[in-house]
Every structure is written in structure tokens, then in C-alpha cells.
Amino acid sequence: MASAPVSEAAAEGPAASSTEGSVAPARPGDRFPTKQVRAVVGLWRRSLRFRVVTSTLILGLVVVSIISLTMYRSIADGLVDDRVELAQAQSRTLAGDAQASFNSFTKTPEELPEFSSTVTTGLQAPPGDESRYLVFAASPDNNSDTRLPTEVSQGVGLEDIPSALRQSIKSDPERQQTTTIELERPVEDSGTDLLGSPQQSETVPAVVVGQQIDVPGAGNYDLYFIYPMDQEQTTLGIISRSFILGALFLIGLVSAIAYIVTSTVVTPVRRAAAAAERLSAGHLNERMSARGHDDLALLGQSFNDMADNLQTQIRQLEGLSRVQQRFVSDVSHELRTPLTTIRMAADLLHASRDDMDPVTGRSAELLHDELDRFEELLADLLEISRYDAGAAILEQDPVDLFAIIERVVTSTESIADTRGSEVTVHRTSGQEAVAEVDSRRIERVLRNLVVNAIEHGEGEPVDVWVGSDDDGVAVVVQDHGVGLKAGEASLVFNRFWRADPARTRTTGGSGLGLAIALEDARLHHGWLQAWGEPGQGSRFRLTVPRTAGGSLTSSPLPLTPREGELPTETS
User: Is the pLDDT of residue 19 over 70?
Assistant: First the structure.
């Protein structure tokens, strides 16, 4: 006997069931966005095609956005620079013409205001042309007694000129100064309100170029030209829309290409996965289509070669298994005839052992005992051969497992007394431990577990717990003997396995008892699990569903101390 943490292969139960691919139940607090996010995350994990297309889409969007923004900024800066240079050149020419006109004035000072209005009118754009606005005003440092009227174009005024630009011209009157502003101007045909003011306005970027001119007899005046960048703004709008449409088209095209390329790779892989699933389900003739000479064709050909080899080996193993099963079955049946004759002779010798000398009498006793063990082994071989052949049949009726364990304990009292172990039965719940089972098979399982615990209990007490819930009934058999080493809980159900190969089977076991017990538990859709630790004994837990064909999700009794403590009440 032995022990170990709950074993993977040794135990049949929830610990052995896979959760891969399971879907968590929806919780009442879930909201629609949360469900959508979970659906997208699940699709991201499951679909290679979705990951590739999504990654391409995101990366393409980032790259195209960076390129588009860089190009847009470069074009915008170029348009602004060109517009500024053109505005400066045009303003320089107009300012020179205005300076020449004022320098040529020869009339009386009283006529200077009218002449100034004529000059500034000539500097403005023609009516209906909003490509240029004019502001003509006295410089901040002008102390002349002669004042010329401030001239402005319709829709703009001196308040539109930044104060910083006016100070720059004042500080350096010999140089032309330039800046850009956001110009707010009325929209044409927008109507007026009751006070006559425009009802609508628009804001456009504009270049403001200013410089100072000298008006003879009137002092210094600032001349500002405002050039709205309507054309540039329209051009940038067209460019931005073109960039957006081009980016969307390019991203869509790249995503479509990624989808097509990924489909070219993923579709054969999915076909391979589907073929592998059908192959694993037992369809050994399943194959993939392998056309061409590329890598995917090589994958298909390799898969087909693997399937051919597996089919050949599986068929060989099936044939060998059938031969072995037939051999075991035939040998077991054929041995019954000579065994019957030997049994009759052995019983005769055993009955006459008192009339023999001590050595011969002891030999007759050993022959009788070994024949019992041989008959048990033969019966177990026949039983295990039925499981291998899939011929085992259940005869299920409602049975009280507590009554079965009581019979088992009673029938094993002589073995327990010989080993010095006391067997105690505990009932752990108020419910009846009734389940629809094959009583003969379940009794055989429990008898094997109890006898096994007595044999390996080192004379220590053996405890048996019987518990039940709405879904199943469980029996736990615990000894306090040598226990199980790490990893041995996955081996105790193997045929003819021993924890210690040098240890003899004092109770005459065949070595197939736990293997048959595991098959009996599986036949009932139940679990037979083992756990133990060196020096602390071991536990075996049998769990069966209450109804025939039912399923189990948990056991009424814990198997390991980590799962909980077993109750101490004695029935």
C-alpha cells in the first residue's frame, strides 16, 4: 500500500476532468459591454485569423496615421510658408506704392485726409474680393497735430491686429513684421439682427503683415495687410479628406490581404485539426488532401503518413490485444477442468492430513491454500478479460451501501483479528446511503478495499466512513499503516502492482483486485480514488451516483485532509 497526493491517473473524479474550453456561467452583474469584451477576448484566443487581421489592422492604422500626420503637417507648413512669403512680397509692394503716393502729395494740409482715403482705398482689394484686408492707423508714438482718419476694410478693424505686432513695429519701424492670427469675419448673405450686426461669423487663419510708413505733415502711420488663408484651408481640407479616405482604403486593403493570406494558411491547419479530431474519435481512415509541393502540402502529406502509421500500429495492437484477451480467456477456461480435478484431490488430501506425518500434512495444507489463491486468480483473470472485451454487464437495483459495508466488515473479521486491526464503521449523514448499483460488484470493491487496508495497516485500526448527498454515495476506507509514497497513488490500480516488490501477499491477493475495483467503479459512472502519505496511512474513496447512469460533480466525503476532516461519530 502507499500514499501520495491525490493522483492524476489513479483517481477518477473532478480532479481528473478537464476544464479546457469550458465557458463560465453568466453572472447577474454582467453588463452588455462586459459580455462583448469577453466575447472579443475569447475570439482573440481561439482564432489565429482574427488575431492576424486585427493586429494588421491596428498596426496599419498606427503606421498610416503617423505617415498621414507627418505628410499633412509638412504640406500645411509648406502652404503657410508660401502664403507668408507671397503676403510679405505683396505687402512690401503695396506699402512702397503708398509711401510714394504720400511723398508726392503737394496740396494743402486740409486736403491730406481726403488724399489719404484715396490712397488707402487703392490699397484695398476690389469689392467682393476677400483675399486682402487693410488697416491703416496712426502709430502709437505719433504726436503730430494733423490726424488722418483710420481706414479699415469691411469686417475687420484695428482690434483684430495683435498688440504684440504693433509693439514690434513700434520697436523696429524700419522692418516689416509678420504674424498669423485667427480672423473672425462675417459670413456673406447671413443676414443681420435687429441692431444691424451680423448674425453669423466664421473664423479663418490669416497672415498679418505690418510696417510703418511716413506721411509728410502727419507723422508715422502703421499699415497692416491681412490675408485670409481661405484657399490654403480649402486645400488642406481636400488633402485631409484624401488622406483619410486613402488611409481607410489602404487599411482595408491590407486587412483584406492579411485575411486572404491568413486564410490560405489557417484553412489547411483547421482542416488538419478537424481531421485529427476525427482520427482521435476512432475514424482511422480519415486523411487530408495534399496537393502541390509547398509547405502546406508537406503538412498534409506528413499528417497522412502519421495517420497511416497510427492506423497500422493501432490495428496491430488491436489484433495483439484480441489475441491476448482470447488467450487469457481460453487459458482461464481451459484451466478450470484440470483445476477441478486438482481441487478434488487436494480436498481429499487436506481432509486426511491428520493421518499423515507432519511434513506431508503441512504440504497438504499449503497445497489447499495455494489452490484457493489460484482459483481466486483465475476468477479475477476471467473478470478482467470481460472488462477488456467490453462484455461486463451491470444488474443495478436500489441498495443500501451501509448494509453492504456491514456485511464486508463482518466477513473480514477473521482477517482483521489475525492482523490485529480493529475495523470501525462511521455513518456521516442522516440520509440513507441508498444507490442504484450492482450489489455484487460494489461488495467486491468494498471487500477489496477493506482487506487491502487490513493487510497494509500494520495492525493499526481501520476506519470506514459512509456518507451521502443528493447526488451520490461515498465510502472512504482509511488505514494507518505504511501509506503511499509520492506518485504511488497513480499506480495502485495497475495490474499486479506492489508498493514493495519484496513484500508478500499474506492474505492471498491476486494482484488484480484494485484494477477490477477501478473497472467496477467506472462501470457505475463513479470514482475510485486513492491518497496517502508515508507513515500516515492511506485512504481509498469509492463514490457512485445515486441513480443508474447519473453523473457526479463532487463527493460527499473528503479524500485528502486539504478537502476537509472526516467526522468521528461511530455508527
Answer: no
Spell 540-562 as b/e; 16+ CB within 10 A means b.
bbbbbbbebeeebeebbbbbbee
DSSP run (H or E) holding 568 = none
Q: Report pLDDT for 189.
A: 55
Q: What pLDDT is attached to residue 58? A: 87
Q: For the chain, how are helix, strand and coil distributed in percent, rounded to 5?
A: 50, 15, 35
Q: Measuring CA to CA, which residue among 508, 346, 484, 347 is closest to residue 418? A: 508
CA dihedral 334, 340, 343, 348 (to 10 degrees): -150
Q: How far apart are CA 446 and CA 444, in angstroms?
A: 6
Q: Name the 3-class secondary structure at 385.
A: helix
Give CA separation, 95 vs 109, 175, 177, in Å: 21, 12, 12
Give the SS3 label for residue 104. Answer: coil
How far apart, in Å, are the Cα atoms of 540 and each of 186, 381, 415, 440? Answer: 93, 23, 19, 19
Q: Which helix (H) or strand (E) holds 471?
A: none
Most confident of 430-434, 435-439, 487-491: 435-439
CA–CA separation, 132 and 206 (whole Å):
10
Mean pLDDT of the chain, nearest integer: 80
The listed range with the strongest mean pLDDT (40-54, 156-170, 197-211, 303-317) is: 156-170
Return d(Cα 464, Cα 477) in angstroms, integer. Answer: 5
- By the 10 Å C-beta count (0-12 exposed, 13-18 middle, 19+ buried), 527 is classed as buried
Let me know if 441 is exposed, middle or buried by CB neighbors in 10 A (0-12, 13-18, 19+): buried
Contact at 8 Å (CB) between 466 and 399?
A: no
Q: Using CA of residue 498, residue 499, residue 505, residue 507, what is the dihedral sign? A: negative
Amino acid 278: pLDDT: 82
SS (H, E, C) 188-235: CCCCECCCCCECCEEEEEEEEEEEEEEECCCEEEEEEEEEECHHHHHH
The pTM score is 0.47
C-alpha cell at 469: 448527498
Is residue 79 within 8 Å of residue 236, measured between CB atoms?
yes
